[in-house]
Amino acid sequence: MVPLGHQNGQISRKSEPMDTNLIPLHPELQTQPSVYIPEEFIPLAEDPNSLTSQMAARFKVDPRTFINWRWQMKHQVTEGEQAAAILDLKEQETQGFDQLKHLFNAGITPYYMGLMVPRLEDDECPIRLQALPRVEELKDSLGVADPLSEVAHSPVREVVQVYPDRVAFCVAQLCPVYCRYCFRKRRDEEIGLHFNRAIIDKGIAYIAANPAIRDVLITGGDSFVASDSAIEGLLQRIRAIPHVEIIRFGTRTPVTLPYRVTDRLAKILAKYHPVFVNTHFNCAEEITPEAALAVANLVNNGIPVGNQAVLLKGVNDSPERMMALCRSLLKIRARPYYVFHPHSVQGTEHLRVSVRRGLEVMKSLRGNITGMGIPAYIMDTPSGKIPLQHNYILGIDGEDLILETIRGEIWREKDVY
User: Fold this and answer.
1) Closest Cα to residue 277, out of 293, 254, 245?
2) Which of 15, 123, 254, 379 has the fewest CB atoms within 10 Å around its CB?
3) By C-alpha distance, which of 98, 225, 153 is closest to 384?
4) Domain of 395, in residue numbers
5) How many structural domains comprise the chain?
């Protein structure tokens, strides 16, 4: 395996010079795999029939090494040759690795690679579609670099404010997996953003100076790709601001690097309640015993977990696949929260779904799964989120409200004036 670009003891998406403003993280990523092994994942490493052990065998490493999240980050798959050693690549995937380096780098943890179907016939693997570069990304008639105009909504660097009472604080740059539909691809060429002390200082100062801000979403990149001490240091500073009421984390680590979401990390987060975590499962195939354990570590420490999926062609754009995802999420105590209509970001035309199709998929859930298992279908815009839903109000007849039931019947309800 060839790790992500690194020099001078620092790991980054590209080789970049050491930044003395960085909160100590990258040297820690370079430590030996034996530094910390999460106890709760050891039974999976010791079970020869577990997914963890099977994946470790595919990567020819000891399962106890495989469950070390720092090892996973150091051994991300970034090149086609690495992927071809694990999978039978399709021609468009091989070409994707070769032709797309100048557009958006690849980076996939061994764990997430292990979830991919090794050999394909006619059917596509929903996990491969999300993470492997494909030559189709070169064709896109609608895609833009910054579909949410985040740059225009950043009063200080890495703080995005669309609503008066909340901000997204982009403290991280690294991710366990670089999703091919990521709406922050524009950051791929930037360096020195990961837990950068100077950037964090200015962001904290901005939040502290604006008492209308009650809600801080810590995101990135992936906000959990940092040491426990770096995450706790950030939490301490934000929780010290009197007007900040809730803190949220956006992270895909339960999906792409579950070994990072330890009970020890969850106990640190719980010290600063109310803390919420939103994660990002897109298909039922991603919900493994390892992922379930990562979510359990959070919820068992009183941290509510919500899921924000993205509607993607071939991944979850059918009633059957969306239902399977929502049912599987409820089983691991992660509540389906949002399904985002895909952003028109560059290189994602082959993954986009029509709004009409999205409405059909979401309507199919109503009446067939508990209400708490039905996420809101959302279109995100530079001006905020817009809920998209089937209109069950057919009209008004005198004092009667004419409604369509979930079974397609007509219902009259006396309105109140």
Assistant:
1) 254
2) 123
3) 153
4) 389-417
5) 3
Radius of gyration of the chain (CA): 22
Tens of pLDDT, residues 266-310: 999 999 999 999 999 999 999 999 999 999 999 999 999 999 999
Are 230 and 280 contained in the same domain?
yes
Task: Give the model's pLDDT for residue 35.
Answer: 56
What average pLDDT does range 376-393 have in this prediction?
93
Task: Convert 168-183 to b/e letters by CB count within 10 Å (16 or more is b).
Answer: bbbbbbbbbbbbbbbb
Question: What are the tokens at 80?
Answer: 């086609």
Cβ 158 vs Cβ 207: under 8 Å: no
Tell me: the pLDDT tens digits for 340-359? 999 988 889 999 999 999 99
Q: Which two tokens stand for residue 304?
A: 């509510």
Residue 248, phi then psi, degrees to nearest 5? -120, 150
**Residues 313 and 247 grouped into a single domain:** yes
Model confidence, pTM: 0.89
Whole-number pLDDT of residue 186? 74
DSSP letters of 91-110? Answer: HHHHHHHHH-TTT----B-H
**Rounded distance between C-alpha atoms, residue 259 and residue 294, angstroms:** 7
